[in-house]
Design a protein that fits this description.
single chain, alpha/beta, five-stranded parallel β-sheet, 8 helices, binds thymidine-5'-diphosphate
């Protein structure tokens, strides 16, 4: 938790893992049932100028070289952190953020094959703040892909490099969870969204000891 009483929680996982639904459930639970000031935000693009950058990154018509893609994600994070995340944390808010640095490591390194050392050297320059807790929503690639097919069109990154890409990203997340056991909590993201939501809340309660002021 921050000195001002809030906390920075990131939600991570492969495309189709249910992140957006869980981020909204969590924000709502913190705000309504725990009486805490909470916001939900996302990457890429969760800041005032971010829609343009998000379109640039995700539009399948844009061919973007791996290094350029990496630097655009970092630029997006820098603006998002400065204009949304840090101000909210300074005001004592709880910030629930869909995707953050673990996405860059899982997608650009494990997925695209940019060396971890290379990405980490960029990250060392950027000095982005660490989340207080990261929830990794773990799900089989085949299940996540079935959900995405139901949803319709895939974006540029979701349709990357054929079927193997998402398996590499999923493997990357599991590796990251092993390397950062103190920060990353793995939550089983299979099954219905409400049950996954209960698991997410349990992880948050275990970490921060938040208590419900109203029965959920
Ligand atoms: P997301 O917003 O989760 O997609 P959607 O809500 O449309 O399902 O993420 C967009 C894509 O950006 C996703 O495929 C992961 C990718 N991404 C990276 O490759 N690196 C990053 O650092 C971030 C933040 C996202």
């Amino acid at each position: 938790m921050t000195q001002n009483g809030g906390a920075f929680i990131t939600l991570e996982g492969i495309d189709g893992c249910g992140k957006s639904t869980q981020a909204e459930y969590l924000r709502e639970w913190l705000a309504v049932f725990c009486g805490l000031p909470a916001i939900r935000t996302f990457e890429p693009g969760g800041w005032s100028g971010g829609a343009l950058l998000r379109r640039l990154l995700l539009d399948e018509k844009n061919a973007i070289a791996p290094d350029t893609e990496l630097l655009l994600f970092l630029a997006d994070r820098s603006a998002h952190l400065d204009s949304v995340i840090s101000p909210a944390l300074s005001e004592g808010k709880w910030v629930v953020c869909e995707r953050y640095t673990d996405s860059t490591l899982a997608y650009q390194s494990f997925g695209r094959g940019i060396g971890l050392d290379r990405i980490e050297s960029f990250l060392n320059v950027c000095k982005f703040r660490e989340p207080d807790l990261t929830i990794f929503l773990d799900i089989e690639v085949s299940l996540a892909e079935a959900r995405l097919r139901e949803r319709g069109k895939l974006d540029r990154i979701e349709s990357s490099e054929g079927g193997g890409f998402m398996s590499k990203v999923a493997h990357g997340y599991r590796e990251l969870a092993k390397r950062h056991v103190e920060r990353i909590v793995t939550v089983d993201a299979r099954g219905d969204a409400l049950s996954v939501g209960v698991r997410v809340r349990e992880a948050v309660t275990r970490r921060f000891g938040v208590a419900e002021t109203r029965q959920s």
